[in-house]
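User: Last request for today: this protein with NAI, please.
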Amino acid sequence: MTAVSDILRTMDYGVAPESDEHARAWLAAHRDGFGHFIAGAFTPPGQLFDVVNPATGERIARVSQGTTADVEAAVAAARKALKSWSALSGDARARHLYALARHVQKRERLLAVLESLDNGKPIRESRDIDVPLVARHFYHHAGWASLIADEFPGRKPVGVCGQIIPWNFPLLMLAWKIAPALAAGNTVVLKPAELTPLTAFAFAEICVEVGLPPGVVNIVAGDGATGAALVAHDDVDKIAFTGSTEVGRAIRLATAGTDKKLSLELGGKSPFVVFEDADLDSAVEGVVDAIWFNQGQVCCAGSRLLVAESIAERMYAKLRARMEKLRVGDPLDKSIDVGAIVAPVQLERIKRLVEAGEREGAKVWRAPGPLPERGCFYPPTLATEVEPASILAREEIFGPVLAAMTFRTPDEAIALANNTRYGLAASVWTENVNRALEVAAKIKAGVVWINSTNLFDAASGFGGYRESGFGREGGREGLAEYLVAPATATKPAKAVKAPLSALPGRAPAPGGDAIDRTAKLYIGGKQTRPDSGYAYSVLDPDGKVVGLAGLGSRKDVRNAVEAASKAKGWGAATAHNRAQVLYFLAENLESRADEFAARLVAQTGAAAREARAEVETAVRRAFYYAGFADKYDGAVHATKTRFVTLAMNEPWGVMGIVCPDQAPLIGFVSLVLPAIAMGNAVVVVASASHPLTATDFYSLLDTSDAPAGVVNIVTGEAATLAKTLAEHDGVDALWCVGARELAKTVEAASAANLKATWTRLPPRDWADEQGRDYLRRATQVKNIWTPYGE
Ligand code: NAI
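Assistant: Here's the final one, the structure of the complex with NAI:
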């Protein structure tokens, strides 16, 4: 007879299947195929493609491939609905969002089973993680709908949002996109992934059920071509995308110069760092949640295990023992740990990458447990002896494959953790709180989990650094992506009378007293000659030469970026220190107000009174950002119990700033000061037509104790210099104020390294151009989840 102790020892589970009866009935009711959900109703099915259950290979539905005409109809419906939806009171919108949340909960079983059938994820996850988080997201944002007027005064919705989501968390990604958009008063056209569109249709039915006004949510299914049509549509105001970095790049290129707001949540290769003093058993369970959750098809999966050399073998042994116990199989079985890979194409990709890693010399160990005979399954896999340059350490595999490496010192751990083009998430395991927080601060990632992993909550922002994208989803940070300041009209640029002209080494035409020197560039705290050796004439509005400025080149920009990189200590200085420098600068500017005003008059032909007013505004602005330097606080988000979720505002590092051609002083000051107040080092391209104000600024910087390299100034032709900044991998973010053509150049050039850009046409009135929005854009938020309690 089997003894209880035998059962406990073998822990042999029976099968515990979740019933798919309701989901099957729902699918049967749609056996003729799904159309799109446009203006509150389903369109008749068009050209259909198959949707397949990856655990069995069986076709479970047929769905219409969205055409350009479908996208147009959906965008038109969203545009039509926008006026009344955005005019509703926040409370009225909140009621709709609450209703959506409640109805998601009412249908949670259907949604969870459908998700598992469509995607292959274990029912335990769809039931206990995905769907509850979907409801949580709608509840949380219902609250925001009521609060926006108070919490984001003066903001308005962006408009019609095109949203494109991937297949790994189909319904959760839908909620992450739709809930904040609707709360903020936008309307949406959402394109689910072609592999997993079904829960989006179930959600569409919920929209009808709760009486959401037609056109507020529109859903068009289809593949990348449908997504591209949505991105290209002229009447879409914002694109929010989650998916591969490659497609993110294509979208950045397609939207360059279009004025569409963009947020990208892209891939990752997140480190899971285990120090010697970590609680190893907890860390092993952490790895299970980090890389075998959702079969590793998670953008923030902890796919690189970095473990202290002294404990590596012990950790690997424990991991292998744990992996032997993981059960891979039918996603609808409640006792399954690892379900099916989403599709054969993804399974092939995983196999290809692992085999390539093996050929490179990694030692690959696949968990020996049984795999189902049919369907898309891949065993939990551990690769050790992985070199940092190996494909397994670099590429996002998006499968249940852990690449392990060792380190000796904390510095080496941090260097390895940051040795990636991505920066989405990280997990840090140590019992030493000082080390945990230090490492969390130094890892370049949007989310850091301490002694935990893969935690999500609607109140916390989520999103990446570097090539993991830009923008956040969730919480206050995420909501800001769906709001804009009311558009300020732009002033037609005053014609510059003469084009920028290079006068190599030649003295300008006799022009009188104003020509007292050739302004150089300012790099690393020193005035330096431009690499080209050329200067150009600076003209007043009558075409008279008022001075010479250095004609900066790509080489000068590169030198300036290098100098700025060396000044990164500025970001680590206390905010109090930075404030002191800015106060000093404000005082020095004030004491030289007459001189700066005279220079403005000479260059721009402004009336003396106007010039004086510009200087006074600049002085006030300097005091303002000096005051703000130590007050732009982060937050502690209210997420889960027993966690402090710290939202830290971190400087980008090195920022590029392209100043407007007009308003040479106030344009410069309004952009440069918030950036440095937040701890960035900057490379500034001064106004091309009126560069002498910026070059006068050198002496202010010198006398205000600004450390060398914090502000670097290059003069010359904006388009060339801006493009170089956009392309430069050492520049972490770029602001550019100028004509649409310039914005297009900058945005297209930034697609390669996906840096965050903020491009704007020049505002009409710089007097209003200050505030938190500048500080928000001068920082990126890192959310650090810190557990407490034993
Ligand atoms: P993908 O990036 O091609 O697909 C994501 C979404 O973008 C889908 O809805 C797709 O239809 C749409 N799309 C594709 N091309 C488009 C275009 N040119 N314009 C607009 N929308 C477009 O990802 P895919 O091919 O499904 O997976 C490939 C790899 O991408 C995975 O192996 C994984 O490494 C990565 N990936 C990362 C995700 C993440 O959350 N970071 C999610 C999905 C995939």
